[in-house]
Amino acid sequence: QVQLVESGGGLVQAGGSLRLSCAVSGRTLSRNLMGWFRQAPGKEREFVAAVTWSGGTFYADSVKGRFTISRDNAKNTVYLQMNSLKPEDTAVYYCAAKDEGSLIYRYWGQGTQVTVSS
């Protein structure tokens, strides 16, 4: 029973900031990879950022320099700090978890809406 619950989405003006949180509960491997994905209307889900169990990070080119992913293993929580938001960042943002050795992200949250107005 692995559950991922996102929070922190909302409506913000261009240039503003939001911080998304993802709380993880249930049974997962400790050395997992946590990721954020997003999906805009009419588009496929795309990778945004990921953080390894030890804190290494990866970012999509579109968000480098603006977004920061981090995790607190003691709290079983992953964060996505989003600064300098643009209208094209508008999407449903999903938290996901990938166990070490797995080929895919097996666990997904329900998503949280982020809307950036111009």
How does the SSE layout of this entry go?
Layout: E1 3-7, E2 10-13, E3 18-25, E4 33-39, E5 46-51, E6 57-59, E7 67-72, E8 77-82, E9 91-98, E10 107-108, E11 112-117
Parallel strand pairs: 2-11
Antiparallel strand pairs: 1-3, 3-8, 4-5, 4-9, 5-6, 7-8, 9-10, 9-11
Can you characterise this structure?
The structure is a single chain. The chain is mainly beta and 118 residues long. 0% of the residues lie in helices and 52% in strands. The chain is built from no helices and eleven strands. The protein has strands spanning 3-7, 10-13, 18-25, 33-39, 46-51, 57-59, 67-72, 77-82, 91-98, 107-108, 112-117. Strands 2, 4, 5, 6, 9, 10 and 11 form a seven-stranded mixed sheet that branches. It has a four-stranded antiparallel sheet with strand order 1-3-8-7, with no helix packed on it. Strand 4 (33-39) and strand 5 (46-51) form a beta hairpin. 30% of the residues are buried. The mean pLDDT is 94.
Top keywords for this entry?
118 residues; 11 strands; mainly beta; 0% helix; 4-stranded antiparallel β-sheet; 7-stranded mixed β-sheet
Count of β-strands: 11
- Taken in chain order, the helices and strands follow as EEEEEEEEEEE
Distance linking N and C termini? 40 Å
Overall SS class: mainly beta
Task: Characterize this entry briefly.
Helices cover 0% and strands 52% of the residues.
